[in-house]
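Let's study my pick:
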Amino acid sequence: MSDPEGEARRPGGAIAKRELPFFWICDTSGSMNGQKIQSMNFAIREAIPEMRSEERSYPYVRLMLRLVEFSTGARWVQREPAGLDTFKWQDLAVREGGQTDTGAALSLVAQELEVPPLSEGHLAPILVLISDGMPTDPAAYDAGLRAIVGCEAGRKATRIAVAIGHDASVESLRRFATIEPVRAEAIDLAPIIAAIATRSMRVVSESRQDAERSLESDLRRRESRRVLTWDDRAEAEDSW
């Protein structure tokens, strides 16, 4: 179990907040057009105030956010870590005809998982990957994933994946995530993102294993409440 209060004490008894790095890794490829990109923007934008409220439960922790988007290639939207007091969500736009270069995004993130740019004494990062498709850069995906798990911060990170849409591929996301990826229709995305954004912070006060188990259980319940996907319906109809 983590002890942020005790571990954050400086010589002389002063208390220093420990940084909790949080990475949003967001798909803006052409297939995200329409309701998917709109729902992702809405879900994360609405989750930010809830993250601020949750952070107050951990007075010795400072959540530091970064944001990378990927389509054909990847780019930083927020590379410099920003606290919740200054971070402002910038709605992302689809790159028309863009590919799903997830590997390019993972490589960018991996570069930020060393000290520096991470601060000394940081807590284990939280990485959240949101996508609706299979990587179109499989070799780069393999390399990016190796780079993440090849560094200490990446190995210790809680890595969460969200597959948007009934036709989203989860196989590649399973390789990234430390818990089973959650599938969600665009219309159901907001409560799932809110749960991820807030409950993933439990890694601060619980063991990673316990925190991930609790989060996965909560996400499974939320996932089960949604309307059946087309794949589910087809399976159900076969049994009727």
About this structure: The CA atoms of residues 95 and 224 lie 31 Å apart. Confidence is low (pLDDT under 50) at residues 227-240. Residues 35-55 form the longest helix (21 residues). The first strand starts at residue 18 and ends at 27.
